[in-house]
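Thought: the user wants the 3D structure for the chain below. I'll pass the sequence to the structure tool as-is, report back what it returns, then summarize two notable features.
Action: structure_tool
Action Input:
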Amino acid sequence: MRPDGKPEGLRQSMSWLHTWCGLLLGWLLYAVFFTGTLSYFLDEINDWMRPELHRSIPGPQTAALAMAAMQKIAPDATTWTINLPGERQTAVEASWRKPGAAAGRAGTQRVHLDAGTGEVIEPRETRGGSFLYRFHFELHAMPRIWGRWIVGIATMFMFVAIITGVITHKKIFKEFFTFRPRKGQRSWLDAHNATAVLALPFHVVITFSGLLLFMSMLMPWGVKAVYDGDMQRYFAESRGRAAGGAGEREGAGRAGRAQAAEPAALASIAPMMEIAQAHWPERGVGSIVVQRPGTPQASIELREQGARSVVRGAAGERLLFDGVTGEPRNAPEARVPSTAQAVSGAMMGIHLGRFADPGLRWLLFLSGVVGTVMAGSGLVLWVVKRLPERRKLGRTPHGHRLVEVLNIGAIAGLSVATAAYFWANRLLPVDVAQRADVEIRCFFIVWGLCLAHGLSRTHRRAWLEQLWLAAVAFAALPLLNAATGGIALPAAMLQGQWSVAGFDLVALAFAVLHGFAAWKLGASAGLAAAPRPAGGAGVRIPRPVAQSAEKQA
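Observation:
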């Protein structure tokens, strides 16, 4: 029975639940889907937003140049990690740890190196794609735990909306092949159904795996009971590591002492790279890890590019060499995860998509775009469904107007704000204080202005103006890139810098998508109800000449 006391069947109950689960947190879910989808190309966004890296062109001597650079930059480090350029990054990313450094990221120092010369590159300060990535699961400008709780609850609503949506539509797969254009509410419902069914497995897996990522926070009782409240021990064991990182710190200390007592030169990296290339002719070497550089105990580990398993944290094959003589060593056997670790790691690996090759990554991205369209079309459908009711009333209830404005701000406004974030990255002075934070403030200021714009303009006019603005802003990004120090799109394609070229091409695709939406909206009468300011409990709208046959929700 509904809250208003009227009896209803299972599907009617599920429809009510589906509608309100989707609406109450729909705007947040749209933002999570949108930013999470962009995060599949996190590395590419990071590269584009650091145009200083675009001049880095990898060559056959890149590994040797990077090793030589690290000997100058961090000769007394205990560990070097050198990530070589690949399909998703154009420069060398190197990091190191000094003796006695704090465990984890706090004790790690990083630098970017030119892949063609080995010189240090100092890119502009920016959060890049990491801001969008972290926003999609912990929001911003609030304690992280609060953001994760909010997104976790929204994810539960999303899962309920997916399940109830499947139950509601008894002909859901038949309706997948049905699209009736220019039919008002029916067209929006067809589009919502089609996008929901098209990527239904993706929607279910990405939502369920997202809940698993929050599992220890949303349902901590099992971990507290088994591990007696020691969450760090749980996380370490679930990832197959020793708790506390004691071994890492102790090893670092021993390495530092040995390095000071017995210096020794490292062997040339070139023969090792040739052996590795023969082992992995398709993937090649992705990274080099040097333990105890400059000591007789030095070892060099070459890691294959990419991962051979979907399990989170799984890597490709490894080759181990003596760091002084260059002779091959027997690499330690890879850890075999338990069944529980493998299942958990696989679900998380699927959600993060870090295992994916370019083709699969694009498929995940497109599935995310479909999911974003599904969430947005559901929000718009709520408004379209209620147009007949508004026409009967002759006014727009304040609640309906609130949903209209929030829809504009959350959907079109988020696109404009994201484009503005990329524009701010290029137009702000490089030496401005706290530059990364200023870029993010630009994002939220523009998003807030879009919300205010939706409030001050008529519904249809606000949609049109913001969609066209987003289309123009995205379309101009490749030109902005070339004009502000980045490599131009044609040159990036010719030189194989697909991390940069791919960003520009996706920006153009987004421009076409937003422009097409604006053009269709301009040619449609579906959202043509133009409210007028009026006193009393709502906004007056003109009654239609011919009453629509659309059914009310």
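Final Answer: Structure generated. Residues 398-427 form the longest helix (30 residues). Strands lie at 79-83, 92-97, 108-113, 120-121, 285-291, 299-304, 318-322, 328-329, 395-396, 539-540.
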